[in-house]
Amino acid sequence: MEAVNAIEVNHLTKKFNNKIAVDDISFNVKQGEVFGLLGPNGAGKTTTLRMMTTLLKANNGNVKIFGHDSVKEGRLARSMFGLTGQYASVDEDISARENLMIFSRLNGLSRMESKKRTQELLAEFSLLNSADKPLKDFSGGMRRRLDLAVSLITRPALIFLDEPTTGLDPRTRTQMWDTIRKLVKQGSTILLTTQYLDEADQLADRIAVIDHGKLIKIGTPEELKQEIGGTKLNFTIDRYSQINTATKLMTDQLGESINRNDKQLSATLNSIDQLAPLLSTLHEAQITISNLTVQEPSLDDVFMNLTVGKN
Amino acid sequence: MDVQTHRGNLIMNTATMAYRNLLKTIHNPDQFMDVIIQPIMFMLMFGYLFGGAISGNVKSYLPTIVPGILIQTMLSAASGSGSQIREDLDSGVFDRFKSLPMAHIAPLAGQLFADILRLVIATITSLSAGFVMGWRPASGFGWVVVSGLLAIFTGWAISWIFALLGLLAKSAASVQSFSLMIMLTLTFLSNAFIPIKTLSKTMKFIVYMNPITYVITAIRQILSTGSWTHEAWLVLLFGIGIVVVFAPLTVWAYNRNN
Predict the structure, then answer these.
(1) Residue of chain B with shortest Cα separation from A106
(2) Do residues A131 and A96 lie in contact, with contact meaning Cβ atoms separated by under 8 Å?
(3) CA distance to partner chain B, nearest, from residue A77 (Å)
(4) Is residue B26 one of the residues assigned to a domain?
């Protein structure tokens, strides 16, 4: 028997006053998968996520959470996922322990179960020392950890994370990534939105690239990188007089077009083996170069390539 | 999933939400300042300024003004619920409440039940301020408690109207200014501070159109006669009517925010 998809999104569309925010988006997320929604600010990621989590009604299309329609069986669907919003969705005025207790109770746990679960989560997310301090004194990272802890009270099989690391410093960000990886190991299905390519690359099994409300591309990070293909070569020619010669030599050798930006030349290599002969050709022509970089394709390139000229 | 979840029921969810709001106010006790300072200030100002002009002296003005200020304070405490709800809605934590498998009315009802504490504090402050200034109601302590309870119930019922306003408004600040306008109009265009017999025919008509006039009259009657009057029944029914009409409207507005 084929396992039911964790999420099925069919032709999801949302308009705000005639402006289309989400335009006919469809995709499936398998159980146990980490799925990334990647796109620039205002691309429609959060709107899509809000529709998936029953916070926003779609104008068209539907969402199924483990086979249950998110509108017709809203309450059942809501009991199957945890949500960590983009803005810390915890209570600022009360302590971490009180937050966890209240959300445990609201999730239907008894008082005893709530106490136990609160203690477990405080320990798991290293919040025991600040459990009873007001949230106002919390750092951004602590707040996010608490936020995530609240989403995990019922150990949901599916977790939605809306930009989990936006605004965090690099160290806290890495910690957050570790936490997310731990959840994956425990078998959770995760859908996360992000505007950081490296984050999607690091965490996601599959990525959907969204721009202007449209789904432009879907695939594994490797597939997306292959889409662009090739290794990026970049260097600067020291003397203006040599630029034309250099460009000609490179075009002959690589058979590809060369991009020029003032003194900077860049080209795409089909294979890294092309590099050494090219450099010796330039050397023999007594062309001096500097600032040489050779770059494997990154998701940045994919992203720029897919969304270029559209913003 | 090894955590046992029971489908939360409405009463339990509401109680949890009320507990949450109580915790919030306990962590921020300055939220009570308005319901403490306002009645004392108005009682002193109005009592000593207008007492002589309206009733001959301060002491004989107090039976008029104590119920008036009591209800005015109820109205402003009730309007506080509206802006509080708006602020909460904008804070992001409501997204989480909405995404939980619980009754949709619980966050709103929880807030309004927790606000009863504000109403109680406001009532005690208003009545005590009057007492300190020399107000001695003829009906005795038991009926003072009854009139306080009726005032609290009315204030609570009216807080549902302000909750609806809070949900429909664009921001907490706009709720606040709009509420202040409603509160001032309703209290000054009533018998809260003046005897109706001094008014012109048109003004009398307007004042009798104002439901707050009947609330204040009922409270005054309870305090002066020591009995549950016809007007008291009317006010009680009026309060129940407001809740019956506005609770579903408020829930509708809450769901509509999608």
Answers:
(1) B13
(2) yes
(3) 8
(4) yes
